Amino acid sequence: MSQQKKLWSNVHQASKIYILPNAFTAGNLFFGFLSIVLCIQGKFNNESSDRAVDVLAQLIAPTSTNTVEGAGYYLLAILCILMAFLCDAFDGRVARASGKLSLFGKEYDSLADLVSFGVAPCLLMYFLILQPTKTMSTTLASLVMNTGWLIGFIFMLCASIRLARFNVLTNPYIQGHEKYEKGDFSGLPAPAAAGTVASIALTMLSLDLTKFSPILIPLMLLISWFMISNIPYPSFKHINWTTSAKFRSFVIIIVCILLVISFREYSFALIFLAYVFYPPIKYIPRAKRIISYKLKKLSKNK
């Protein structure tokens, strides 16, 4: 009998609610819900935003000169998604460090992730990117209006599939789960996909680039496909204060810190996009070998 089966020999043990790690998960859910509320306020609040909202938005993006209606609410919604990302990064670490793992925590984390990294970024994308603007041609505006909801749903659908597949692959009662539990992610993680969408929206609002939003539609679809792909993405969940690093990894960490300090609101988009596209580029030679092997196998069978 495995160690996990000894730990969770019945439903009462598997469903234990450990306060500290699940508090971070609850924080993740809270920020996801708050982001949804702020997106709705930004879209339908026709009056000028509250003074407090404007002040907080200025702190988030001090160089922002955009003219988007409800921009302050959207900036706060983006901050909430990034805060949810931070909470999600800590809940699993706290659970592993304290030895307070439970199946309840795993399922609860995925449900919270679906709200924060599925519904919240989908709504942000739909209200901010997938809406017709005055600068669009009539044909393009009509196309965006008729397909925007579908593109947003595709993102949310892929995020939900990604989360469900992760739960299956890492289920402790399924043989071979260790490979996915301790190794790389299979497909782009939903939190990283949501962080990419949020950081791009932050850059757009900061530089007043919303008129170019249709260009981002193919990017959103590509990110959605990455979530349900089998491309291996690096996992940082086992990194702690005692973890050593290679020289290249250490330099990358320092560069990321300098980017955040120097470029502030623009740095997040650069970091997330680098994480999203480096593994697929690295995966191309392997994909070519797999395709070549399958083609040779087919030719032999003929």
Largest sheet properties: 2 strands, antiparallel
Specify the overall morphology: globular
Oligomer status: single chain
Strand content: under 5%
Kindly report the average pLDDT value. 80
What strand order characterises the main sheet? 1-2
Give the beta-strand count: 2
Distance linking N and C termini: 46 Å
Rounded to an integer in angstroms, the radius of gyration calculated over CA atoms is 21 Å
Low-confidence stretches: none
What is the N-to-C succession of helices and strands?
A: HHHHHHHHEHHEHH
Count of runs of 4 or more consecutive helical residues: 12
The SS-based structural class is mainly alpha
Write the layout of secondary structure elements.
Blueprint: H1 3-7, H2 11-14, H3 19-44, H4 51-60, H5 71-98, H6 103-128, H7 138-169, H8 177-182, E1 185-186, H9 190-207, H10 217-228, E2 232-233, H11 247-263, H12 267-301
Antiparallel strand pairs: 1-2
Structure write-up:
With 302 residues, the chain is mostly helical. Strands 1-2 form a two-stranded antiparallel ribbon. The longest helix has 35 residues. The N and C termini lie far apart (46 Å).
Provide key terms for this protein:
302 residues; mainly alpha; two-stranded antiparallel sheet; 12 helices; 73% helix
